[in-house]
């Protein structure tokens, strides 16, 4: 990828994990609604993703997009996810197609499929002897309206791939925490994504060839109910971390959501 | 279903097909943005589905909802489907849950999966020797933003079922034409839905027991690439018509989209 990579929502947690690992490997154009608070690689554009003209201008000359921007709160109200996550995603896809972008990486979420975790299945499904594996071919089952908005972003990606030839990969991001997995939180351990695996996975999304894909973004945890086979096979994802390696270590923090 | 049935978009084509068949079988509350133009059964409420308070008032005492209202144009612009079909559907689902409605029938569309009709598969897939059958378990592949909005309505239904115990059936409606199948239009013949089968199918959606379902709404056409097995098994759908029975008859009309 010689052309600049547009990273929306660059100042958020996922954006920081990505830049922490691969800041030096691409020419970046960072976009966020908030101005930068520290050093950053490449250009920085302050823009709202629901403003087509601003997004289209930021898209000029871009080879690939990593679209993270949106309301990240699982409990976000409908009015916000409708505007920021659904209309916002549509605006960014549209601008990408209009600018001739090749690859589009969409940050989806475990909340798009959270309702597979039924009362009957939990907490057993969070443990390493459980056989259930979601693999990205299943229909969404969102636990909240945020998850609905992420599932819609996936469908928008399918449309822009089928009808406008944009190559799209949707990453259903698990539980991203820095340094170590969530403590005393089996669900978070099962879907843990370490910062370095996150950066590596998005690096693969920028380099690999694909048409339209939905993959799970988690480390290679012993406990998991998301398959990472598709990410390995199509993207060449080769995760280094596993939440099981932290079991029994000193518990320095409480559980994180 | 002894309680009234709320029918949104009552004045549209699907609403008229339903009322043409089962007007006398339920106590209806009809809702449409436009005032009635002729006789109609039951109450008639003029309201916009994006207005929660209006919809909630119309929902009072209702046992089941058939939600047809929305922009029906496959070529509808994003601004319209975002407001009328996505935000509108969310408003109607929300009001239904708040009013304690039992069953929700969502009018989805063949356009939610139109992109399975690839250049490589067509027109062979429209013919009766072709083996492809979409059955409602496949991920959406919309051909247009209208189809994206219908896929989103399905996901909203999944959410309101899983998190709010609303029983939901999504009907991916084929090509509804009155009297006879589309002429000289293989795609339309493969997904033809006669008026009487339409009324019968929605009748079954009001009477059957289900949790969350996605079914295809077509007649029992020889040529089909949508399975009607699920509609038969879960809903007791027993279609009477078949577009093949009209082949060779006088062609009184041109093709309809």
Can you put this structure into words, describing what you see?
Helix content of chain A is 32%, strand content 16%. The first copy, chain A, is an alpha/beta fold. Chain A has one domain: Rossmann fold, CATH 3.40.50.720. The longest helix of chain A has 21 residues, at 78-98. Chain A is globular and about 50 Å long. The two termini of chain A are 34 Å apart. Chains A and B meet through α3 and α4 of A and α3 and α4 of B. Chains A, B: Pathway: Carbohydrate degradation; pentose phosphate pathway. Chains A, B: The active site is at residue 146.
Instruction: Assign the CATH architecture of chain A.
Output: 3-Layer(aba) Sandwich
CATH H-level superfamily of chain A = NAD(P)-binding Rossmann-like Domain
Q: Characterize the overall form of chain A.
A: globular
Sheet with the most strands of chain A?
7 strands, parallel
The side-by-side strand order for the widest beta sheet of chain A comes to 3-2-1-4-5-6-9
**Uncertain residue ranges of chain A:** 250-257
């Amino acid at each position: 990828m010689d052309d600049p990579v547009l990273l929306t929502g660059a100042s958020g947690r996922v954006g920081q994990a990505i830049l922490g690992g691969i800041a030096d490997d691409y020419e970046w154009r960072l976009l966020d609604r908030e101005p930068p608070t520290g050093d950053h690689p490449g250009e920085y554009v302050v823009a709202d993703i629901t403003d087509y003209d601003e997004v289209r201008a930021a898209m000029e000359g871009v080879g690939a997009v990593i679209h993270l921007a949106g309301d990240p709160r699982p409990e976000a109200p409908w009015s916000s996810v409708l505007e920021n996550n659904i209309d916002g995603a549509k605006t960014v896809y549209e601008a990408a197609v209009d600018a001739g972008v090749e690859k589009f990486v969409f940050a989806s979420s475990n909340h798009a499929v959270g309702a597979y975790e039924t009362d009957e299945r939990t907490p057993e499904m969070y443990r390493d002897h459980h056989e259930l594996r979601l693999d990205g071919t299943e229909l969404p089952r969102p636990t909240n309206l945020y998850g609905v908005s992420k599932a819609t972003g996936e469908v928008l990606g399918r449309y822009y791939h089928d009808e406008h030839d944009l190559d799209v990969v949707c990453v259903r991001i698990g539980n991203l925490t820095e340094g170590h997995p969530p403590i005393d939180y089996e669900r978070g351990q099962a879907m843990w994504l370490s910062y370095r695996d996150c950066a590596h996975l998005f690096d693969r999304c920028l380099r690999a060839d694909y048409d339209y894909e939905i993959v799970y973004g988690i480390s290679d945890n012993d406990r998991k109910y998301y398959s990472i086979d598709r990410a390995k096979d199509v993207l060449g994802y080769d995760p280094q971390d596993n939440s099981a390696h932290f079991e029994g270590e000193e518990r320095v923090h409480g559980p994180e959501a």
